[in-house]
Amino acid sequence: MERERIDLPVMAHKTDFPDVYKGKSTRDLITVYKAGPTRLGGVLAGLSDEELEAQPHQGKWSIQEIAQHLADAEIMGATRLRQALAEPGTSFAVYDQAAWARTLRYGSRDRNAMVAALWLFSALRSSGTRLFNGAREEDWKKWGSHADWGRLTVRQLLELYADHGERHIEQIVELRLLLGTPVKVPRLLPTRLY
To answer: How far is Cα 151 from Cα 135, in angstroms, rounded to an integer?
Structure first.
């Protein structure tokens, strides 16, 4: 069965990166980005294997698929951040998240794989937080070329990945509610990029 593909929207112009977080301080965005692993661990806590694998929305990703996606997407984010900082102007690597989910069997993972995904997400966010915290003023303007968004600066990468983690944490919170295992998690970013 084909799973839902969670893609970036097709942009009319490749330079139309949303300015939703323009007024948000870089420090606040780093705080949200850094909190992602703890927040993800919190929304995954206490779930049974059946709840992790359940699909209340037929054809859409389960909680375990979302968690695995977050870890693998963070691999791409970590790579893109390093590309922009070390090789400004480079083209960012692209990937087909639906193909990754299918080929890497996100839906057939066991609890140990979930623990590994959370560990990987946490390690990559820790490393990324160190790079963001160490960025100099000129580093925030360094950029790379993204297939959907066009030119993305280091600051925009921070916005994109802080938002990405929060987006999927909110999806898990919604799925838990549908499964009858609600969890309260405050919204750190009240508006989504897309």
So the answer is: 19
Report pTM: 0.90
Range of the domain at 126: 26-178
Is 39 part of any domain?
Answer: yes
Give me the residues paired with residue 150 across strands: 146
How many angstroms from the chain centroid is the CA of residue 104?
A: 17
Answer yes or no: are the C-beta atoms of 40 and 171 closer than 8 Å.
Answer: no
Residue 9 has pLDDT above 60, yes or no: no
Q: What CATH code is carried by the domain that includes residue 139?
A: 1.20.120.450
**Residues paired with residue 152 on neighbouring β-strands, in sequence order:** 144
pLDDT tens, position by position, 102-135: 999 898 767 888 889 999 999 999 999 999 999 9
